[in-house]
């Protein structure tokens, strides 16, 4: 049994795969921003197969940060670079872990961040355990955590032979997005929302994640995965849980995660009859995509949350590539009010509450107002861009890496959460059906509109006309 390492700040951060794409695009920038805000307090050791020196790693970090567009302050980078060191070695070689043990000698609260393929998780954790490095440690792993329910359970079983659950932090970067965290505060810190946040007042919930680009040069990665595994089983179900959860009764990590798991347990297995798969025209010509591939680049589905708050309120999800816009949003559709006798029997459109996750996070409340000079109404927007009013927010990986080093697990997914979300989508994996073709630059296959029959139609995403200053 390992020592409980929760809520104890790390005294070293070790990053496996530090020479890879994720580190280049996300990790270095996030750590640099933490350094700028004086929130880094420990050394950082990179581990990878490449034969680099410490100076080569520092040069690579500088170039990676500049390539993201992050303004680089030389004095801040000098502090950051002084924390960096490098251990070269193959993950299958026990000598790699012995060298790492010497590099972190004297450290008692390490955080190991595995920016490596899931197939290597157990091998690396086994190497760490063999070198006596897992006692008092936390291990951060990236998605995908399994390919389906059976593989997720098998991976959990492998890792749990070497680690306790409270040592294992599974990253879903959507939970680190500031507007995703805003959901609980907007719901429960404002008494105007909570009384109407239920089946008595809400008709349905629509969650959209649209990307205006295709698979491009990632065919080898994307084709075995598809949209359902890539973004629905993890990111979008986590957003759904934040929208639907009950208020936590305490501030600790498990209280927050328990409420999300409660939602997942209340969701029946997804019904293939309420599932639409699409594939954009031209996908089969993408390098790395198998001939005749049936992989979906678009999914639409309907889920139910069978509890007292939400029974009878469908949750509609759509996600896809090569759509007209890049946007992630949650749209709460309230019930339509009765016909207005004083407005010549006009039936107003339902009110809508919209939370924009990205880009340009914000909130919009669409309500009815009288049209000037007419006995009629129209929808008006009461909108707010968060950056304009609240200032710059931390990046998702900036927040998550800081939380991992501080021992705050509330924004990481737990074993039961991962298995429940795989359980929900498993019937869709087992009976996928052929994908419908759709033209690039459209909102997906025609069947998506039938998915919401009897409920408010899909709306084009709310795109603010103005940008934050």
From TrEMBL:
It catalyses: D-glucose 6-phosphate + NADP(+) = 6-phospho-D-glucono-1,5-lactone + NADPH + H(+). One of its GO terms (molecular function) is glucose-6-phosphate dehydrogenase activity. Residues 14-178 form the Glucose-6-phosphate dehydrogenase NAD-binding domain. It comes from the Bacteria. Its EC number is 1.1.1.49. Catalyzes the oxidation of glucose 6-phosphate to 6-phosphogluconolactone. This is Glucose-6-phosphate 1-dehydrogenase. It comes from Streptomyces olivochromogenes.
